[in-house]
Write a structure and sequence with these properties.
Number of helices: 8
CATH topology of the largest domain: Rossmann fold
Strand order of the largest sheet: 2-1-3-4-5
Mean pLDDT: 86
Low-confidence stretches: 124-133
Distance between the termini: 45 Å
CATH architecture of the largest domain: 3-Layer(aba) Sandwich
Structural class: alpha/beta
Largest sheet: 5 strands, parallel
CATH superfamily of the largest domain: Response regulator
Number of domains: 2
């Protein structure tokens, strides 16, 4: 089996070497980069399975790196943020980070988070359904969600959706008119071993809505059920 590759983007050489020891011991191939301006080139060069990305870097910062990276890659990214900086976490999730961890941190916890992210990104969506029973292409008026091709079409136009947003939308459309709590959504889309909090769901729902609301869709809507969670509401006329 080919070893899993992790790219660590952090300008602290001590952190680089400490994490290298932990990841190598666990069977990973480890690549490191310490400058923000070279981070994207490092991703293209080593083609990692997961990226650990510090927010504060010389040159381009972690937010800008993630923003540009998401234009061309869906590689899982775990961001390292300053302790207590809630806004940093929210912005990172909105830009497409898969998880975050506050500094200072225990290397064992980061390793566990990396493994959890890899399990989630390699697992199929829709855990409420048995293997082989999941309808992959869903169609409502002006909306097509195709899990097989990881594509979403609105009014005949393809709209870019990162994998987790697409899986979440597919899950909600598939289970239309059913209310889910944030915890249920986390379990079904991110998995039971997700270390983050329910804010992750809110951020992804917000981003999905922004894309869906670029067209009129009176037959269906992704609604907030106050005090409970979310549901994808669709009329019988929606198809």
């Amino acid at each position: 089996m080919t070893p899993t590759k992790v790219l660590i983007v952090d300008d602290d050489l001590n952190i680089q070497e400490l994490l290298r020891l932990y990841f190598v011991k666990d069977g990973f191939n480890v690549y490191t980069e310490g400058h923000g301006d070279r981070a994207e080139a490092a991703v293209l060069s080593c083609q990692p399975d997961v990226v650990v990305l510090d927010l504060m870097l010389p040159g381009k910062n972690g937010f800008d790196i993630l923003r540009d990276l998401r234009k061309r890659s869906d590689v899982p990214v775990i961001m390292l943020t300053a302790r207590g900086e809630t806004l940093d976490k929210v912005v990172g999730l909105e830009l497409g980070a898969d998880d975050y961890l506050e500094k200072p941190f225990e290397p064992k916890e980061l390793l566990a988070r990396v493994k959890a992210v890899l399990r989630r990104t390699r697992a199929p969506a829709g855990r409420l359904f048995e293997a082989g029973q999941l309808p992959e292409r869903l169609r409502l008026n002006h909306l097509i969600v195709d899990l097989a091709r990881y594509s979403v079409y609105l009014d005949g136009r393809e709209v870019e959706f990162p994998p987790k947003e697409l899986e979440l939308l597919h899950f909600m459309v598939l289970n239309r008119n059913r209310v889910f709590t944030r915890e249920q959504i986390l379990d079904n889309i991110w998995g039971h071993d997700f270390f983050g909090d329910t804010r992750t769901v809110d951020v992804h729902i917000k981003r999905i809505r922004e894309k869906l609301d670029t067209i009129e869709h009176p037959e269906w809507n992704l609604k907030t059920v106050w005090g409970v969670g979310y549901k994808f509401e669709a009329s019988e006329d929606a198809g």
